[in-house]
Task: inverse folding
């Protein structure tokens, strides 16, 4: 899986809502109603990540969820990260 | 819920295994076999946290889980954090 250039990342970020690029990967954050809602969404994302065999770097405190995606083996951001990001967007939007 | 002093925290940490105190709270980390195992444990911890109405500050990447506990309302570490820490220890040890 090929590491994307910053230009390619910027282009692809236009198709997502609320994601940005940091040196470490593409990242976003969500605020839910409470912990139960946050963890419910995390569970749905966890199943999707496991299915894609590509896993998020994420942190949660109460109703807050922060997610960073990168591809360890490629040392940067790849199409796999965008695939998972789009799935996360679909999961959150369908809630 | 009363904020514990550093001495009190140090005393109580002796009853736990693998936890330490940082300025932000009491913290530990776990390494599991893979993501599925890590998230399985997170789910069990999530139910316990919700039941205690006291929630962790935690982050996960693949098989790694880092947990920090503190009591926001008290501005420090309280007995509630130790209660959740003990429950987390029981959950992980019973796995």
Result:
């Amino acid at each position: 899986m090929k590491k994307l250039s910053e230009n390619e990342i910027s282009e692809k970020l236009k198709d997502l809502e609320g994601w940005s690029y940091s040196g470490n990967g593409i990242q976003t954050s969500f605020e839910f109603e409470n912990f139960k809602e946050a963890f419910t969404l995390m569970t749905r994302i966890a199943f999707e990540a496991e299915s894609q065999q590509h896993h998020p770097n994420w942190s949660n405190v109460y109703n807050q969820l922060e997610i960073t995606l990168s591809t360890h083996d490629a040392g940067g951001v790849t199409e796999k990260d965008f695939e998972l990001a789009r799935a996360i967007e679909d999961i959150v939007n369908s809630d």
